[in-house]
User: What shape does this take?
Amino acid sequence: MDSDLDIVGLTDEQSEYSETNGWSADALGEPAVLTRSRQWRVVTERRVGVSSGFEVEFNFAPLTWAATDPCDAGTAGVVRNGLRVVFDPGHVLQDLADAVGR
Assistant: This one.
């Protein structure tokens, strides 16, 4: 409970996730309350809390966030701090991890 979970979703439809919050209950399997929303350059952060008090930080970015030529320093920092790829059918995130040296 001293930490949170950070999830990055690459999408061409950021507005679907940044303008509403109903999708978070579907993703988490329980109602979630929006606790913070911020913009970090091209990344939209949507932090939600669940009934246990645990927070999940969803970050939505365009596919260009994972560009490797050149690789953004902020993106590289995220990758170095513990990227775990869950679903990557186009190998975009694996290519990013390889470019950063993970």
